[in-house]
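Below is how a single chain appears once it has passed through the pipeline. First comes the sequence as given, then the structure the pipeline wrote out for it. We keep one example in the README because the format questions we get most often are answered faster by looking than by reading.
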Amino acid sequence: MRHKQIPQDMPFYVSVPSATDPELAPQGDTAMFVLVPTPLLSEMPNVDWEAETARVKARVLERLWHHNVGLDPEKIVVEEVLTPLDWKRGFGLYDGSAFGAAHTLFQVGPFRARNYSDDVDGLYYVGAGTTPGTGMPMVVLGGKLTAERIESRVR
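Resulting structure:
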């Protein structure tokens, strides 16, 4: 993604939660989640996301087929696609980034933004851009940690 475009041979993450919890899909079907990291909206300002989504989906399906996953596009019953534009509009995520700040040395670990303000007493933060980090489990944990910080302050 250094060239401000989605690479032809892009990395992606696949999860099949129905493999461990069959109740997540009707019998004989599969629930699958695919995540394709994309550059920020500011790095791809003129993208037609509808067309780009179709291209990315075709590449993902081709790679899954190549790795013997055997997903038949005709048998997809429910599909939801979120683009960086959706992340920005629907969730208010800066620049369409689903994961908050960049994972550079000075954006992780002890350098990541704290969950409280040093400047404004009683102002707290939570989300992908704050401690402990990105992704739903870390954001939920961050919410819990921030709530505990607030509780300890008001007691």
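The helical segments are 49-66, 84-91, 136-154.

See the next section for the split statistics.
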